[in-house]
Structures are given as C-alpha cells and as structure tokens.
Amino acid sequence: MTPTLTALGGGFRAEIKQLRRSPLLAALTVVEAVTFLVLVTIFGLASSHVPTAVVDHDGGRLARQWAQVMMATYHTYGVRYMDARSAQQALGRGDVAAILYIPAGFSQHMAHHTMIRIHLRVDNVNADLTNDVELGIPPVARAFAVANHFPGIRVVTAETDLVRHEVGFIPYLVVSALTLAAFVVAGTLAASAVAREFETRTLAYLRLSPTHPLIPLAGRLLATAAVSAVAVAVAALLVVAGYGVTPDHPVEMAAGLLLCVVIFSCIGAGIGTLVRRTLPLSALIFGLALALYLDSGSLEPARFYGNRLWLIAHTSPVYYAVGILQYAVHGLRVTPETIPVNFAALIGWALLAVGAAWLGLRRAVVS
Asked: Is 76 in a helix, a strand, or coil?
C-alpha cells in the first residue's frame, strides 16, 4: 500500500474511532436528518386544510352541497360543522381560523337564482392563513355555481394536467427537505472534523507526515461523508416507508443525494477552515441551510418567485438538487433545465467545492 493510501486510510479510521467514541453524536446525526422531515411536515400542515367552522342555519340540500364543495377544494379547508356559540368559542380560542355562516333561506335563494349574502369571520392573527381562507372562497363559489348550472356563468375553467397524478404539498416538501438534511448533516460533520484539528492543534503533527498533510484530513472527510450518507439514506427511507412516497427513478434519487453529500461535505470543510471552532458551527450551517432551502424551489418551483429570485436561485446547488429529486421521486420538472443539465451543474459544484476545500485546507496547513 502506498504512503498516500496509508495516510488516507489512517485519517478515515481515526475519524470513525472519534465518532464511535461519541455514539450520541452519531445517533443525533441520524435524528437531525429525520427532524427536518418532521419540521417541513408541520410547516406543510400549517398551510393546508385550514380549520374552518361552518354554521348552517339553512339545513337544505344546497347548503350541504356548499359545504361539500368547500371540503373538496384541494388542500384548503378543513370543514367542521358547529353551532353558532361553539364556533364563536372555537374562533376565540384559535381552534378554527374562520367561521362561515350559511344563512336561513340559502337553499331557496339558490334554487331561484337570487342573491344572498354569506358571512365569513376570519381570525386575522396569521396573515397567511387569512389569505388562504379568503382566496379559497371565490373558487368554491365558482365550482358551486357551475355544478348547479347557474345562469350567467360565461367563463368556466378547463384544466389540462401535464402530469397524470397529483402531488400533495407535504410529499413535495419532504423530498426537497432531503437536500436540507444533507446540507446540515454533511456540512456540520465535515466542518467539525476540520475545526477539531485547529482546536486540538494537531495540524503541526500533520506537517511532519511523510505524505502531504492534507491526505489524513481527506480521510477524515471521507469518514464524515460516509456517516452523512447513512444518515441521509435513513431519512430517504423514512420518506418512502413513512410518507408512502415511492420514487419513480430511484437511481437518479440516490445519485443526486450522494452528490449533495459530497458538495456539502466540502462546503463544510471550507467553513471549518474559516471558523476553526466547533461550538458555533451548527448554528451557522443551519442558518445557511435555511437561506439556501427557501430560495431554491424547495417549497414550490423557483420560477414562481419572479425572475430576480429565480436567477439568484441558480447560484445554489440546492436548486439543481431539488430539480433532480423532484423528477426522480415524483416525475416533476420543476426547473426549465433538463435533468442532465442539473446533474452537470451538481457535478460542477462538486468539483468546485472539492477544489475550494483543498485550497482552503492547504493554505491553513501551510500557514
């Protein structure tokens, strides 16, 4: 075995031993990857199926049909039938976000095609939920009118789906969250491994090595990347088994996640070189991950954000990773770039990150 491979393997084994001495850290690494899936799930649930009380003073067939149309509106309303007093108390406690009152005589007025007002009370503490509730009423009214063949409806939407299956908001989010998990886990472990070398002042001994001092460090980064890949794989299995999301192209999914681990491990190594302290690394990397995650198409295609933010999103590897993962899992094209172009961009990012990490560590070791 050549001295280079010996040094590389030595660094790898040393980092694995370091992680084995901290089994809690290894366990928390897996938990951290899974936690992001839970967080984005809670985020998704908060913006869908808004709890809405329906107070039906009419009781007729058309009143019940109106409520059914509300329930059928995709991921908008979580309808709860209540009496007026219970609904008011629920709104005051924050158990529901809105109350919709169906007045007496509603069915009769609708049968005779005459106007009647429907009152809607909204809890406006959360502006996002308020907007969801208010914006959902016109589509409900339009669908209700079309279903009952009301006169005067001159424009009716005709939907043509380019994708043959619906993808819910939460399944979309958890797939994108895998990139965030990869960034935080791989970045934190790699940055900690490098920063630990500065804190323990072992770089001076590496300079005495018969091989290049960066070879043992590269071995340590290979070890953290391997552990990170396992943690991300556990999170991906949870998406498949726990959320019932079956990838259409599992090979592309695995390749995209593996490239993410490589890229974010190298970025973490660069951050560790700059910070040189293990304590602030987790908070710093988590903050950077959120910024990259929000402006990358993780919540919805980045093109929906406007041209300026969409162009900025192209500077992040997460943008291309999300494009690959959404296609690999759901068969969705969320970026104008093709999948080969996204893979080429990620490979370019990986080469750039490896080169930058190598130069940063080399400068740190030499100085």
From this structure: coil
- Do 176 and 330 contact (CB within 8 A), yes or no? no
Report the candidate in 234, 237, 236, 229 with the shortest Cα–Cα distance to residue 190.
Answer: 229
Fold entry, domain 49-147 = abc type-2 transporter like fold (3.40.1710)
CA angle 258, 259, 263 (to 5 degrees): 120
CA dist 96 to 93, 126, 131, Å?
A: 8, 12, 14
Q: Where in the chain is the domain with CATH 3.40.1710.10?
A: 49-147
CA distances from 296 to 43, 131, 162, 174, 232 (A): 17, 24, 23, 14, 19
Tens-place pLDDT, residues 178-200: 888 888 888 888 888 888 877 77
Instruction: Tokens 């406690």: give the residue.
Output: 93
Proportion of the chain above pLDDT 90, given as a percent? 5
Adjacent-strand bridge partners of 52: 79, 98
Locate 209 and state its tokens: 């090595």
Cβ neighbours of residue 185 closer than 8 Å, sequence gap 6 or more: 29, 32, 33, 228, 231, 232
- Rounded distance between C-alpha atoms, residue 139 and residue 148, angstroms: 14
CA distance to 1, 189, 209, 257, 365, per residue, from 7 (Å): 10, 20, 9, 28, 16
The pLDDT confidence band at residue 35, using thresholds 50, 70 and 90, is: confident
Nearest to 284 by CA among 302, 268, 307, 306: 268
Residue 46 pLDDT: 59
CB atoms within 10 A of CB 145: 17
**pTM for this entry:** 0.69
Cα dihedral sign, 228-230-235-239: positive
Task: Assess whether pLDDT exceeds 70 at residue 360.
Answer: yes
For the chain, give the mean pLDDT: 80
Q: What is the DSSP string of 135-199?
A: HHHHHHHHHHHHHTT-TT---------SSSS---HHHHHHHHHHHHHHHHHHHHHHHHHHHHHHH
Q: Are 153 and 146 in contact (CB under 8 A)?
A: yes
Instruction: Encode 285-333 in three state secondary structure.
Output: HHHHHHHHHHCCCCCCCHHHHCHHHHHHHCCCHHHHHHHHHHHHHHCCC
